[in-house]
Amino acid sequence: MVMNTPPKTEMPSQHLQRLRRQMQELVEDLRAWVELRLTLTQLEIEERIEARIRQLLLRLLVGMLAGLAVVFALVAAALGLGSWLGHPGWGFLVVALGLAVVAAVLHFARKGLAARSGSTNAASDKAVA
């Protein structure tokens, strides 16, 4: 039985060409996969940013509405106190003084907390050294 086999010089050449073609296809597929992966990552980052922006805008809206409510409540309290004290100016003065006291307490409480945390940090720095 006689078989027609291609010459040995042609067979490796064909195998190399096929191997080269498959390697090129593999590289192209890998490049496409990397590009898709980058696109997916970019879309995920964009979605996170959009979610944070929406959350920030919602918090801003709620904060503005709460601030507006506080302003109206303070005006109502000032007018009520003014009516009770006999003149609207007195009511606004009492509310302003109350707000000044609250601001002073918060200011000095914050300074006290900052001083405590600063001394705690200094003590911990000395302990580390």
From TrEMBL:
This is Phage holin family protein. Keywords: Membrane, Transmembrane, Transmembrane helix. The chain crosses the membrane at residues 56-84, 90-109. It comes from Rhodothermus marinus (strain ATCC 43812 / DSM 4252 / R-10). It holds the Pfam family Phage_holin_3_6. The keyword Transmembrane applies. InterPro entries: Phage_holin_3_6. The keyword Transmembrane helix applies.
